[in-house]
Each structure stands twice: as C-alpha cells, then as structure tokens.
Write a structure and sequence with these properties.
277 residues, alpha/beta, F-box-like_dom_sf, F-box domain, leucine-rich repeat domain superfamily, F-box-like domain superfamily, LRR_dom_sf, F-box_AtFBL13-like
Length: 277
C-alpha cells in the first residue's frame, strides 16, 4: 500500500508540471510514446496535441502502413494554434511513400523552421530537394546511413531562408552546370553554417564548389573529394579526416592581394596534410 501511495505522489508531481516542461520531457521519448500518455488521465489526454517538437520514426512500428496511419492521426489531431518548432523524420523505404509527403507538406504549410530527416539503411534512393524547399525553413539536417546506402540529392538547393545545413552520408549531385562560380548552395542566400560529413559526388566526380558570400562557418569531415571554397565572410573552419582538400580564397580583383583569411584556409589545409595517417 505504501508503494502505491509513493507512485501516486510521484505521478501527481509530474502532472503538476507546466505544459512546456512536460513537452520538453516528452520530446526525448518520441511522439508515439507521447500520444500513449493520453490514457493516463484527463490531465494528459491532450498534452501531445500541443507539442512543439514532433519526432516520427518508422522504427517504432512493425509495419509501414501502421506508421502511415499513426502519422495521419497525429497531424489531423494536433492543435494547429500551437506553432511547430521542429520536425524529425526517421524512416526507411521510398520517398514516394504517402507518410513522407504528408509530413513534408505539413512542414511547408505550417512554416516549420527546423527539419531533420534520417534515412535508415535500405536501397539507394533519390531525394528531390524541392520537397523541402521553403521560405520559412531555417535549419535542415539530412542524414544517410553509409556510402553503400547513400541518398542522392537533386542539384537544386533553393532554400532562401535556410541558415544552417548539416548533411551526412549523402551523394551530392551538382548537375550539368558549366559556370565554375555557381555552387551547390548558391541559391541558399541566407546560409551561415554548413557541415558536410561523409558525402560523395554523383557521377564519379572528385571535386565540387562552395562559393557563398555570406557563409561564416564551414565544417568538412570524413571525405576525400576536392573542395573549392570561396567564402569571404568565413570565420570558423573545421576540417577532420578530409583527404585532398583544395581550398581557395576569393579571386583577386585588379591584381589586389587576397584577404588574410585565405592564408588561414591554406594553413588549415597544410596542417591537415601534415597529420600522420
């Protein structure tokens, strides 16, 4: 009897917390368990409907149809008067699956500023970036599983509001562009922070360009593709386990010397090359 009283006391303490703190706690367990708390009491019945962070994963379900039904239930039952701060989607299978489109359409139509997509191991697929092109999306994370199960992107990264981009284990496609001063991220005008980890180029290409007037932070990790960098506002540069990096500062105008940050890039390249393998 004493144990039951202690459990009830603890339950009451948790229920008495403000909604925003409960939302924070539930964000660590995923939306599936958050929805399941609705059966605990009337206090918990609608807590999940106002969660600002939505975390969907096919790993929580035995079949994809069940997951798709769950996604539909959550998005239809959510209180849309509460803004969504972030959406996380972890899934396996084709991008054309209905639940993928339903979640991404929700992100775009509700002006969600932060999106994270994790692709579980499976067949190689192409992910059209037009699916996440948005004037409100500010932070995007896309994570594959390995080179063997890499995700190929289309060449058009047109996300005008995007400020932070983290890409991991993707196959990047630069398209048929012949202008060397146009890069993968030229149409991400607001981009400030870029992280590229374990990514390769489609078609067997061994180099790509990062030309961006506003980029301030760049991280290159676990790669072997040559990278041509022209980022006059760059303040932070991190290079880890990246082979064959070729870094170039701004092109000189009227034979004027290049800015001093170019020497920083050259120094970083030199230090990387001198490290023992």
């Amino acid at each position: 009897m004493g144990d039951r009283k202690r459990v009830n006391v603890e339950g009451d303490r948790l229920s008495s917390l403000p909604d925003d703190l409960i939302h924070k706690i539930l964000s660590f367990v995923g939306i599936k368990l958050a929805v399941e708390t609705s059966v605990l009491s009337s206090r918990w019945r609608y807590i999940w409907t106002s969660m600002p962070c939505l975390n969907f994963s096919t790993k929580d379900f035995h079949t994809l149809p069940k997951f798709s039904t769950f996604v539909k239930h959550v998005l239809l039952g959510r209180n849309n008067q509460i803004e969504v701060a972030s959406v996380e989607l972890t899934f396996r299978g084709k991008v054309s699956q209905p639940f993928v489109g339903r979640i991404l359409n929700y992100v775009l139509s509700h002006n969600v500023p932060q999106l994270s997509i994790t692709f579980l191991p499976g067949k190689k697929i192409e992910f059209p970036l037009s699916r996440v092109s948005s004037r409100s999306l500010k932070h995007l994370t896309m994570t594959g599983h390995s080179f063997k199960h890499s995700i190929t992107t289309t060449p058009h990264w047109e996300m005008l509001a995007l400020e932070t981009l983290y890409i991991h284990c993707l196959t990047l496609y630069e398209g048929d562009n012949t202008d060397e001063r146009i890069s993968l991220f030229s149409n991400c005008a607001s981009l400030k922070n870029l992280t590229i980890k374990k990514c390769i180029m489609a078609g067997g290409l061994y180099s790509f360009n990062i030309y961006h007037p506003g980029l301030t932070s760049l991280t290159l990790e676990d790669g072997f593709t040559r990278v041509n960098v022209d980022t006059p506002q760059l303040k932070n540069l991190t290079i880890k386990q990246w082979q064959g990096v070729h870094l170039v500062g701004p092109y000189p105008v009227d034979d004027e010397p290049k800015p001093c940050y170019t020497n920083l890039l050259a120094s970083a390249e030199s230090k990387l090359a001198s490290k023992p393998s």
